[in-house]
Amino acid sequence: MNQILQTRHIEKHFDGVKAVNKLSLSFEKGRITGVIGPNGSGKSTLINLLTGFIPFDSGEIVISQKLHFTKVKCSDVAGYGLTRTFQDVRLFEQMPVLDNVLVVLTERSVFGALFERHGTLHLTKAEEALKRVGLWEKRHALANNLSYGQRKLLEIARVLAMNPEIVFFDEPFAGLFPEMLKVVVSVMQELKRQGKTQILVEHNMELIRELSDCCVVLDSGELLAEGEPQEVLSRRDVIEAYLGE
């Protein structure tokens, strides 16, 4: 297997609660891995650890089988080819839609990006990304004037513009109308054709079955099951973990 990302015995405690407990996982290059589990199982915490938004207490992360980290800064992850979306969408609210995409294409600091001159290449990439998610006509609108679904699509556009190797999707389909949902599904399928690695946290089991090449189940911060989605989702202990929620 071509493992592009691994966790080795990573741990995170919050006030004595083991949110992630000695978790070792491997994510294969070019595949979509669905990460599921009941509420509080550690899914979003795992993404936050892997993208540097919260520090892990112990263990290590390995990228491309050669970069070993016991500490990850969120400001550095883009340089390692990683990016993410959020459950609670995070945008630059008082900036136009187009500028929200240009920020991630240019200077890594927000203030630097605001004053950096945008070349033709940046503008072309931003236009392509916004057209892909159907937001080009909204390019001059402020981000905080978008609908909830449009805000999620803008976050997806930023992912596309950055052209990362690994993408973490944290419940990207939540609250989307069917037509918007189809856009995100097609984007994920397109990223897979491009050989990108995707980690999908999602509660909709039909989407997990449709999109995932493999499935990881967390429960109380520990690995409960992993394997083919159909096989994993039919396991009694997995079903009981959900029913026990």
TrEMBL record:
**InterPro entries in the record:** AAA+_ATPase, ABC_AA/LPS_Transport, ABC_transporter-like_ATP-bd, ABC_transporter-like_CS, BCA_ABC_TP_C, P-loop_NTPase
**Sorted alphabetically, which keywords does the UniProt record give?**
ATP-binding, Nucleotide-binding, Transport
Keyword Kinase included in the entry's annotation = no
**GO cellular component annotations of the record:** plasma membrane
> What PROSITE patterns does this protein's entry cite?
ABC_TRANSPORTER_1, ABC_TRANSPORTER_2
Q: Which domain of life is it from?
A: Bacteria
Gene3D superfamilies, per this entry? P-loop containing nucleotide triphosphate hydrolases (3.40.50.300)
Which CDD domains did the record assign? ABC_Mj1267_LivG_branched
Q: Does the keyword ATP-binding apply?
A: yes
Q: Output the Gene Ontology terms for molecular function.
A: ATP binding; ATP hydrolysis activity
Q: Which Pfam families match?
A: ABC_tran, BCA_ABC_TP_C
Using the record for this protein, list the coiled-coil segments as residue ranges, or answer none: none
The UniProt record lists the ABC transporter domain at: 5-245
Q: Which PANTHER family match?
A: CONSERVED COMPONENT OF ABC TRANSPORTER FOR NATURAL AMINO ACIDS-RELATED (PTHR45772)
Q: What is this protein called?
A: ABC transporter domain-containing protein
Question: Which species does this protein come from?
Answer: Candidatus Taylorbacteria bacterium RIFCSPHIGHO2_02_49_25
Cite the source lineage.
Bacteria, Candidatus Tayloriibacteriota
